[in-house]
């Protein structure tokens, strides 16, 4: 947003001339054109006097500097002292580009955005600055979609505003990709030049093509010795064709890049200097938003953030009209029902890593708005005269469900602060408002909640987030969400892509065949093999840990939702029994664990808290085995010649949260507190467990 006034040294306001044919090129596109103004010569002279007297404009501004001045906080604070802006004073729609960066996990999306920000003039304190969430930094993956923008000056001296959306690459967070595609007018498909198209590449590309978007392709990591540029280009062409791309979408441009090194080229033999070729391609290939700023205000809510001072902040692309602070607006549900009305209190635009307040925004731009509290994702914020909501993109259904309940173990309440079912319910409902890929269903007694999502990783991230917020809860093992159609039971099917060494292929095929998987392709490439399966989702539950053991960590497994098919029958039990603690509440002793260790693998160390019904290890045989880990050596006053043995235990098996979720059996739950993760039996009393087992057999 540009302020049509400048302050001279004497603080007196001077009107800014409207014909700006002689203005410095970076500023020209943001101001009204000279088509309807007076003589250019006199206005140019007057403009020269203004620019000489005004200190901020004493030197030519780069595109980045100019946008900073246009979107400065000081400009926003001058709302009452400067003339109101008109639609023509804003950034022209023709100078805006909205693009999403989509790709498979670890193909270089976030690294690419880092370099685009850095080369546009942003000061970055570290790498992967877009992964600002704590869990994202720890795990090295993108979990939430995030919006930023850069200013770029084209070779013909136009200042362009490029809104960039960084998206997750993991299949479990595909809902984040689906919902943001309504905000953008183009996508950049990042593909690893060594790995080529993967499962999530196919998923995100299919979503973009179905919405009519024209992708541009970035072949990343082409500087690696293992890159296969020509072969991957051919695979991409086949992928576009198999997904039903139109002739226009098939004619996609390609950029060869190294996001890590910070360069991109249109040809492999061109100089490798910077990201300018990619910037130019975005400006030329991505269309500007097709919107009407003379229409009434409309915006589809795509993401919700919380601010301790402003409340809920709603992110989206303005689909029509303009918006000013103080304007009346309403929130419409996806069904068209008004949920709330209010006034606009704040408007923010993204600039690099900052949220810049402005007083007015126009259609085509991506903004954050505050002023209402009850809107949700896919709600429409609009003028009071609007009666029809904006259409939203459909989201693929969840395939995995877990039950969240209150922690009722003997150690409940010792570590957490949010303990009751009402607190758990409130937190889950809040998450469901912002994450459209999650569904929360209450049980009849209101004590437990079924949470449905895309995969174990997505639900694991939610559980870890709640754990760090001070919640204590117990969660059941994941189960598959079935469908019933015409009296037939349907189950979700995943497309599984596995890359392993040639020596492991036999083991992988054998294991997945037992899990009802069907092999679709088998391609050898040197000492590596890529195998593609179609496998029931329930067949993949708990398989990731087994896959790592089978391949000695030298393999990758990726999967994405394919669709529903008829139920394929039961699966063989692959897990052995559990070592279940009995006795009283207490701490495990070295003496007892030394006696238990020959019976199987231990999950605990000496000194850890245990209680009856807690799973402390995996038995070496089928069926559960009850053991006493708190047993201490009997102390007597009888002297003995024999010396006490020095007890040396093997290191216990350590599992992450996702590994535990995959591991627990149907009659077990996972106890989660701020500092502890414990696997336990759903029924702690041993006699009741035996009785339930007999009843199930009968």
From TrEMBL:
GO molecular function: GTP binding; GTPase activity
Superkingdom in the source lineage: Eukaryota
Species per Swiss-Prot/TrEMBL record: Linnemannia gamsii
Entry keyword annotation includes GTP-binding: yes
Recorded GO CC terms: cytosol; ribonucleoprotein complex
NCBIfam families tied to this protein: small_GTP (TIGR00231), TypA_BipA (TIGR01394)
InterPro entries assigned to the protein according to its UniProt record, in alphabetical order: BipA (IPR006298), BipA_C (IPR048876), BipA_GTP-bd_dom (IPR047041), BipA_II (IPR047042), BipA_III (IPR047043), BipA_V (IPR035651), EF-G-like_DII (IPR053905), EFG_III/V (IPR035647)
Name the record gives this protein: Tr-type G domain-containing protein
UniProtKB keywords: GTP-binding, Nucleotide-binding
Pfam families linked to this entry: BipA_C, EF-G_D2, EFG_C, GTP_EFTU
Domain Tr-type G: 94-290
């Amino acid at each position: 947003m540009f302020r049509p006034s400048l302050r001279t040294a004497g603080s007196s306001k001077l009107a800014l001339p409207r014909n700006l044919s002689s203005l410095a090129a970076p500023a020209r596109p943001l101001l009204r054109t000279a088509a309807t103004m007076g003589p250019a010569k006199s206005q140019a002279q007057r403009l020269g006097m203004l620019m000489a007297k005004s200190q901020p404009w004493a030197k030519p501004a780069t595109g980045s500097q100019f946008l900073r001045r246009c979107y400065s906080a000081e400009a926003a604070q001058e709302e009452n002292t400067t003339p109101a802006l008109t639609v023509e004073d804003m950034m022209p729609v023709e100078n805006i580009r909205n693009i999403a960066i989509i790709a498979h996990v670890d193909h270089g999306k976030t690294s690419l955005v880092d370099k685009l920000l850095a080369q546009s003039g942003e000061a970055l304190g570290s790498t992967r600055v877009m992964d600002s969430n704590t869990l994202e930094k720890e795990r090295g993956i993108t979990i939430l979609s995030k919006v930023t923008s850069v200013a770029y000056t084209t070779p013909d001296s136009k200042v362009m505003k490029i809104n960039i959306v960084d998206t997750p690459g993991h299949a479990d967070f595909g809902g984040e990709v689906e919902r943001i595609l309504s905000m953008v007018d183009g996508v950049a498909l990042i593909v690893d030049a060594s790995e080529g198209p993967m499962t999530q590449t196919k998923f995100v590309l299919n979503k973009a093509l179905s919405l009519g978007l024209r992708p541009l392709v970035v072949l990343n990591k082409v500087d690696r010795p293992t890159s296969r540029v020509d072969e991957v280009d051919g695979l991409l062409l086949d992928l576009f064709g198999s997904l039903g791309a139109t002739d226009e979408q098939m004619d996609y441009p390609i950029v060869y890049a190294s996001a890590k090194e910070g360069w991109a080229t249109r040809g492999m033999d061109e100089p490798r200097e910077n990201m300018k070729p990619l910037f130019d391609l975005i400006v030329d290939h991505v269309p500007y938003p097709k919107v009407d700023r003379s229409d009434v205000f409309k915006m589809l809510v795509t993401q919700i953030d919380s601010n301790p001072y402003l409340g809920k902040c709603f992110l989206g692309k303005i689909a029509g009209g303009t918006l000013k602070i103080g304007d009346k607006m309403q929130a419409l549900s996806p069904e068209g029902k008004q949920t709330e009305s209010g006034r606009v209190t704040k408007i923010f635009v993204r600039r690099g890593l900052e949220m810049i307040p402005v007083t007015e925004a126009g259609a085509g731009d991506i903004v954050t708005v505050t002023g209402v509290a009850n809107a949700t994702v896919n709600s429409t914020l609009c003028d009071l005269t609007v009666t029809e909501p904006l259409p939203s993109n459909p989201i693929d259904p969840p395939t995995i469900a877990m039950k969240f309940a209150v922690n009722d173990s003997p150690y409940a309440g010792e570590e957490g602060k949010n303990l009751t079912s009402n607190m758990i319910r409130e937190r889950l409902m809040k998450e469901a408002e912002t994450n459209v890929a999650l569904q929360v269903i209450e049980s009849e007694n209101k004590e437990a909640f079924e949470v449905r999502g895309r995969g174990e990783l997505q639900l694991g991230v939610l559980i870890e987030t709640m754990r760090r917020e001070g919640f204590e809860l117990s969660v059941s093992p994941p189960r598959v969400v079935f469908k019933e159609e015409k009296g037939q039971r349907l189950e979700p099917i995943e497309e599984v892509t596995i890359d392993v060494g040639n020596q492991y292929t036999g083991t992988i095929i054998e294991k997945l065949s037992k899990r009802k998987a069907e092999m679709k392709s088998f391609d050898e490439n040197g000492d590596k093999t890529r195998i593609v399966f179609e496998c029931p989702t329930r067949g993949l539950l708990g398989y990731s840990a087994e896959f790592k053991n089978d391949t000695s960590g030298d393999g990758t497994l990726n999967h994405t939702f394919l669709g529903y098919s008829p139920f394929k029958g039961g699966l063989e039990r692959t897990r052995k029994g559990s070592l279940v603690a009995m006795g009283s509440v207490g701490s495990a002793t070295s003496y007892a664990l030394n006696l238990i260790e020959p019976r199987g693998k231990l999950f605990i160390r000496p000194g850890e808290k245990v209680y009856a019904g807690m799973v402390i290890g995996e038995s070496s045989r089928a069926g559960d085995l009850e053991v006493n880990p708190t047993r201490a050596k009997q102390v007597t006053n009888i002297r003995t010649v024999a010396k006490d043995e020095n007890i040396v235990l093997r290191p216990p098996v350590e599992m992450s949260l996702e590994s535990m979720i995959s591991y627990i059996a149907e009659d077990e739950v996972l106890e989660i507190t701020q500092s502890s993760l414990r696997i336990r039996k759903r029924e702690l009393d041993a006699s009741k467990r035996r009785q339930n087992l007999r009843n199930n057999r009968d």
